[in-house]
Design goal:
- The structure is a single chain.
- The chain has five helices and two strands; from the N terminus they run H-H-H-E-H-E-H.
- The protein is mostly helical and 123 residues long.
- The protein has a single domain (11-115), classed as 3-Layer(aba) Sandwich (Rossmann fold).
- The chain has a two-stranded parallel sheet.
- Helix 4 (82-87) links the parallel strand 1 (68-72) and strand 2.
- Helix 1 (11-18) crosses helix 2.
- The two termini are 21 Å apart.
- The mean pLDDT is 87.
- The structure holds S-adenosylmethionine.
- S-adenosylmethionine (SAM) binds next to helix 1 and helix 3.
- The site of S-adenosylmethionine has 14 residues, from helix 1 and helix 3.
Length: 123
């Protein structure tokens, strides 16, 4: 895992800003606003991407009975999270979140659990 530097914008936290999340910092917001000035539809793209993710995993759970998901590049927790969508279909479904952003709360939780020798990162 890399060092956490909140002075340097990170794409995960910029994405969180586009989704009106709360896990973003001044450097992220400044970079996100610069990107928005060049690409004003970025916020809409982020929201539509998130909506597609929800439709896709709901379909996989409902239509194919998939009950285990590996979410690589999970992003910062937002509402609803992937596990909330699939567990709305299959209550016992499991999700493992992976992200390379050390400020990501999923990864901070996983690091704490690893420190406690708990076997699973997130579900
Ligand atoms: C645009 S967000 C997507 C979040 C979510 N999957 C979604 O569709 O709403 C991309 C995420 O991928 C993560 N990411 C980028 N490169 C990665 C890598 N090599 N390994 C793990 N995560 C990565 C970023 O930190 C960011 O949280």
């Amino acid at each position: 895992m890399t060092d956490l530097d909140l002075e340097v914008p990170h794409s995960a936290r910029m994405y969180d800003y586009y989704l009106d999340g709360k896990t973003n910092y001044p450097a992220d917001r400044e970079a996100a606003e610069q990107a928005l000035s060049a690409f004003p539809t970025l916020r809409l793209y982020a929201q539509q991407n998130r909506a597609f993710l929800h439709r896709a995993v709901r379909f996989l759970a409902e239509q194919a009975g998939i009950d285990q998901f590996l979410d690589i590049g999970a992003g910062i927790p937002t509402q609803p999270n992937l596990h909330e969508v699939v567990q709305g279909v299959i209550s016992t479904a499991r999700v493992v979140y992976v992200d390379n952003d050390p400020s990501n709360p999923w990864m901070q939780r996983a690091a704490r659990l690893r420190h406690c020798r708990t076997p699973s990162a997130a579900r």
